[in-house]
Design brief:
Structural class: mainly alpha
Radius of gyration: 23 Å
Distance between the termini: 36 Å
Shape: globular
CATH architecture: Orthogonal Bundle
CATH superfamily: MetI-like
């Protein structure tokens, strides 16, 4: 009990020090920020509906980029995560696979987009490849941990029958992890839609370019329309994901 209290107190002290260094306790600065937020909110009202066709087209491009990038990343992450599962492959191979995934995951999606803009030029292709790259790093890590959590007794029992690694993955690892595989994929898609909204700032296509134009020209009412559209799409994705999980996920037997 005393140890827990000591740890909590230590964390609180460290947090206070960090927040102080970041200016969190500067009351005048915070109040100024709140006033600016109020002013900006008033300038965004009411949203300008005249930009719906332009914003809708750009947002649709963002959704396409996110979907294509997520699915491409998913397809690459599956074999990479399987290779990273230690009870299926040797330590050197699984460690190498995890190292590759970690290296990919270290680079934020925005930097991936900038890199692909340099490699393939401006436009949604660069954004799609950037989303795919980040998705590989994230899902490969999550799925490797998931597959490694498969009951080792079941794995050994099936392996004892002479089953190959392919059969272990096909009939043991995938069925046990089906729920989590789909759940993480849906989460990744939702995240990528939100993350892709700013890729246009670096020339990687999508609604980000429209947002950048409205910000630079101080057209906040038009910007508000774009933000509301993004919110609507994210809410729709959340509802679709909930329906998909309810409709297709396996329900554990009690």
């Amino acid at each position: 009990m005393r140890t827990d209290l000591f740890v909590m107190a230590l964390v609180a002290i460290l947090l206070s020090i960090v927040l102080g260094q970041l200016g969190f306790f500067d009351a005048a600065r915070l109040m100024k920020g709140l006033r600016n937020m109020g002013t900006l909110t008033l300038e965004m009202l009411p949203p300008d509906a005249s930009v719906l066709p332009v914003a809708g087209k750009a947002l649709w491009e963002t959704v396409q980029m996110s979907f294509a990038g997520t699915m491409l990343g998913f397809l690459v992450s599956l074999p990479l995560s399987i290779l990273g599962t230690r009870h299926l492959f040797s330590a050197p191979l699984s460690n190498l696979s995890r190292l590759i995934a970690a290296g990919i995951r270290t680079v934020p999606v925005l930097l991936w987009a900038i890199l692909f803009v340099i490699l393939v030029g401006l436009g949604p292709l660069a954004g799609t490849l950037g989303v795919a790259a980040y998705t590989v790093g994230y899902l490969a890590k999550i799925y490797a941990e998931l597959f490694e959590g498969t009951d080792p007794e079941i794995v050994e029992a099936v392996r004892g029958t002479g089953a190959s690694r392919f059969h272990l993955v096909r009939f043991v690892v995938f069925p046990e992890g089906a729920n989590a595989i789909l759940t993480q994929l849906l989460f990744m898609l939702e995240y990528n839609i939100r993350a892709s909204s700013i890729l246009g700032f670096v020339g990687a296509g999508g609604v980000g370019f429209v947002m950048q134009v409205y910000l630079q020209t101080l057209e906040y009412r038009r910007l508000a329309t774009v933000l509301l559209l993004i919110l609507l799409v994210v809410l729709m994705m959340d509802g679709f994901g909930a329906w998909l999980r309810k409709r297709f996920l396996l329900v554990p037997q009690s």
